[in-house]
Known about the structure:
- With 161 residues, the protein is mainly alpha-helical.
- It is 60% helix and 12% strand.
- It has 2 domains: 2-48, no CATH class; 53-160, no CATH class.
- It has 6 helices and 3 strands, in the order H-H-H-E-H-E-E-H-H.
- Strand 2 and strand 3 (128-133) form a beta hairpin.
- The two termini are 19 Å apart.
Amino acid sequence: MRYVSVFILGLVFWLLITFRFTVPNIIVGAAASLLCAAIFAGYSMTGTLQMLNPVRWFWFLVYLVTFIFSCIKANLDVAYRVLHPRMPIKPGIVKIKTSLKSDFAKTLLANSITMTPGTLTVDVKNEYLYIHWIYIRSEDPEETARIIIGPFEKYIKKFAE
């Protein structure tokens, strides 16, 4: 099933990029998609049928809105710190424990943190994330986890695991 889904996604992607629906283009796209499916389907996500679940799509959209809101808020915070005459920063690396189990969910969380201005995921070791934070607001690990991963983790858990 993974080979078929990678083939179909590859062919659709090819047709969207080329946007030419001629017979030679479809044949070339099918050949390229078949080759990609043969090579890379073993590395693709398992449970591809779960991606069709409408509940997962709902939670993904909720996560997307939360992510956009967090990015806007973080952009304003970083802009304040850059434009302030004293540049009030207190940088450091914090260690945060996540309850996510799958590698895909951990990667999604790490990338969400990295794409939010003011934070950067430095490393992921087992269930711990090491994050560089531009302004450490708390020394308490639970409070730090609530501030940094709180908005993302609960929604990622609902659609990515």
